[in-house]
Task: structure prediction
Amino acid sequence: MPAAKATTLLDRTFEEGVALTQEVRNYIAYHEQADRREFELSRCLHVGYQHTRVSARLIQVMTWLLAMKALLSGEISPEQFTAPQYALNDSEECSSEKGVDDAEIPVGLRDLLARSHALYSRIKRLDTMVRGKLAAGEVPNFAMLSGPSIIPLN
Result:
């Protein structure tokens, strides 16, 4: 019987991102039509904007996570990883917690806003750490269960 593969911090975070992305997709697909029937146009637009915020955060998070996996597997270089296309956008739409306490937004969407913001914030902190280490000639190693460690670049 093969030994169980150790789950890394990066793997767990990636799985969390995929699960949240699927949950958001399902939420929006189900609730968007119901919201259109129930809400006035201005509220529909406001709720639609919040759908977009959640989606934008998750697109950025998943892009970063895929790029980090590619970096660690040697598919892309540290220089490619540090290119702007893999940088997290620090826009107000992604970094702000707005909407979490807005009673005009359905409770389920407020939960998704809070969870996507928490995940985005964690990835933003990791991105800052990783970019700093890459600038110092090191690459992160997410094999540790307790968190990232650093290995030198050759």
Notes: The radius of gyration is 18 Å.
